[in-house]
Amino acid sequence: MPKDSSSTRSGILAAAVETLQRGGVEAFTLEAVAQRAGVVKGLILYHYASRSRLLQAAASQIAESRTAAITRVLSSASGTAALDACWEELRRQAEDGTARAWLSLCAAGLIDRSANNGGFEAAARDALIDGCAAALASGVPLADVRDAYDALWLALLEVTEKQL
């Protein structure tokens, strides 16, 4: 029985996201996505019109899910429990390839972060999280990244308290 159009489109997008998670923008080809989705390249072009549009849709999905996950864990607790939850989310994203995909998309200029960086605290928090994600994705030992993560959060908290 053939798939319906929306499930085919969703499957292609999921395969595009996974392709980015596995190899970043550099490995993102329509052929790679088609193979992962189990469809022909023409079907991808039917649903997304171009590699660029599919890449932008995948980038948007990664950005939205990453932001939602980090926001959820930071708001689910307070104090050190929130920081620990954020750390666990960063580790999860490093393990599933989301950190690799995110950093690759940022480096390629496909993620616009200007709207997220309205104030110092938000910009510093984003830089801290992205820096730790980069370290985890590049294989820096977990204990070293955790030490830096803790030290940076303490410094950020100290600076923001002085600004109040």
Describe the protein's architecture and organization.
The protein is mainly alpha-helical and about 160 residues long. The chain is about 80% helix and about 0% strand. It has one domain: Orthogonal Bundle (Tetracycline Repressor, domain 2), CATH 1.10.357. The protein has helices at about 5-25, 30-35, 40-50, 50-75, 80-95, 100-105, 120-135, 140-164. It is built from eight helices and no strands. The longest helix has 25 residues, at about 50-75.
Summarize the structure.
The protein is an all-alpha fold.
What distinguishing features does this structure have?
164 residues; mainly alpha
CATH topology: Tetracycline Repressor, domain 2
CATH superfamily: Tetracycline Repressor, domain 2
Question: What structural class should be given to the helix and strand makeup?
Answer: mainly alpha
- How many structural domains are formed by the residues? 1
- SS summary, helix count: 8
Topology:
Blueprint: H1 5-23, H2 30-37, H3 41-48, H4 51-75, H5 79-96, H6 98-107, H7 120-137, H8 142-163
Helix pairs in contact: 1-2, 1-4, 1-6, 4-5, 4-6, 5-7, 7-8
